[in-house]
Protein: Histidine phosphatase family protein
Organism: Massilia hydrophila
Amino acid sequence: MEQTWPQEVWLVRHGQSAGNVAREIAEAAAGHHIDIADRDVDVPLSELGERQSQALGSWFAALPPEQQPTVVLHSPYVRAAETANILMQRLDRARLVVESDERLREKEFGILDRLTTHGIAHHHPALYEQRHHVGKFYFRPPGGESWCDVILRLRSVADTLKREYCRERVLIVAHQVTVNCFRYLFERLDEKTILAFDRAGDVPNCSVTSYAYDPAQGKGGALALRLVNFVAPLEATGTPVTASKDLPAAPKA
């Protein structure tokens, strides 16, 4: 059957952000609120996040031209857009299709935004208990999203990949939950499996999870997993690897 998927897809979590740093400080102090004034949409990269992005950008630039991305899709959140821009600095921008796509945004936390674990338990004990009972896959905080909600919007992104970027090499720069939810879709996982991956460790900043088209999978071929949370480009340059959560902090399911 005719190929319908991109030739390759790279999923990259943005570099460390100012929000990641503020959250770590608040959690260490057992505080209730994450001290950051910006909207989650507007939180920029930290200085380390910029260095992480530069290290990963050098790795992409070192690939042979015929293996480099031809399409870059990124979340409109500032930290993701900044990461994407840094990654593209050493690529041939004239050859790239670049799109900001709001469907790639981070999971929305609603009423729990900017609260630490301690803050959620203190200010919203009923929600805290409900989340433990229901689990993060299905729990939707007021004004926010569950993982299922994120997966629903990413299904339409997958359709876009097949319709508009078949045979292209697509770099997607987004967020931790976004990367995990894409894994759920591409690898045809279930709730238990994807949450086990999530419990095993956070997605590192500027890590790469990648897929390549395999015509032997399924009826018409499929995306086959190649790399998971690949951080060798950072390690090779001595750039610290970080895996801080985005906002807010919530206990593992």
The longest strand covers residues 222-230. The mean pLDDT is 89.
